[in-house]
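Run log, item B.
One chain of 507 residues. Sequence copied directly from the ordering sheet:
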Amino acid sequence: MARPAAPATPALGALRGYRAYARRWVFLLVLSLLSCSNATLWLSFAPVADTTARRFLLSTKQINWLSMVYLVVSIPSGVAAIWFLDSVGLRWATVLCAWLNFAGSVLRSVPCMLVKVQDPFAFLMSGQSLCALAQTLVIFSPAKLAALWFPEHQRATANMIGTMSNPLGILVANLLSPALVKKEEDISMMLGIYIIPAGLACLMATACLWESVPPTPPSAGAARSTSEKFLDGLKLLTRNKAYVTLAVGFGGGIGVFTSFSALLEQVLCVKGYSNEFAGLCGALFIVFGILGALVLGLYVDQTKRFTEALKIGLCLTSMACAAFAVVSQLQDQKLALAATCSLLGLFGFSVAPVAMELAVECSFPVGEGAAAGLVFVLGQAAGMLIVVLLTALPVRRAQPSVSTCHDGQDPLDWQVSVLLMAGLCTFFSCLLVLFFRTPYRRLQAEASGSPSVQEDVSPAATDRTPHPAAAPCGSSEPRTAPAGSVGAAPLQSSWLEPALLTLPPCS
């Protein structure tokens, strides 16, 4: 059965009631630039921790807290950010986020701007804390932006672009900070350069974003987007078995990936790998993750097979994590390590936007900010707990080693920790594969209404055979939408083919 033809003219699209505005891409650009800038501010000090500590006469532990504060702040402020996003609106949440991010980037630079600063750490930590508050607003927003502004055939792609902007910023920080900072005096230049994208995102958010929702919704799901009261929405989420399973399973997966990123260099240096190689593995981890997310986002936009993509991706992620746990304990295996880190990013990062779409699908009509936000809050909390656990397990070995670690002490044995990390990854993956099953509630709601307007329609679209679902009242044609139709397939998250959807009867 052929897919239904999209409206060929704006007039016909107006009759069907849905419209996709070109300025949605501007909103997505602003949100992506803001997320990328925020991530660079998060980890800008980590690659040059020693030089930063000497420049401001701080300890390495204090420098590490400039990054850890993001995780600490995100847990209590995450709930408030969810309320703000769903209650006040996407536009004001983005504008507030942009100003917090810009103010934090400027405040971090005060110790370099003023000649005499008694306590530079106070300015650095205050600036990082403002940026951490901004993160909770921007990291929850892609799912809501995709739901409110994009038609159903572009939602997963838009969510992917917004979500993957954050790891892209992490990659930029890991590459740019070491390139900029060669000596202590270069810290001032680094801080000044990071202000530029933050200021640009702030300017664009303030000047270019006019409304939280478009005048005309792009899809039936956007038209039915809820304004559910905050506490009522949270109650619905806690009673939703499918959502709780997804939040615990994928939130735990976020925690595993956070611990992998934080501990990668410490695990590899014990076996004689240089910091430069560890940085290369981290870069491959992110680059392949972004590429994988791009391909998978386009695929699920066309097929709507969110659950199948998530489960297969998590199974492959567990295998890659187990391979890393084994290979990381071997010496002189650079090629194998680079390959396992690349595969771990390819499979693990790519399912993140799909999981965010599933969070909205299984919890509809709860607000998109709450559905996606609580998963990230759980992920940040899990990340802190897993990092603390994994760093408590290693023991020091006095035997001769090839360690390249710079702490001046006997090297640590990370074998138990990396095996536990692989075990946790497998556990969370099995939890989702075995127990996660849900109808696609938002797609079901859209299937009962009119399909959204597609902007770029070929003239030949008007010559296609009309879909049976569009048969006029009184005709003998069935009014059912098969699984292959836009916005309807598959509407059940099973490995079997979904059943046909019966459309509302004619009135």
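Observations after the first pass:
- Strands lie at 395-396, 412-413, 480-481, 501-502.
- Residues 22-225 form a domain with the Growth Hormone; Chain: A; fold (CATH 1.20.1250.20).
Flagged for discussion on Thursday.
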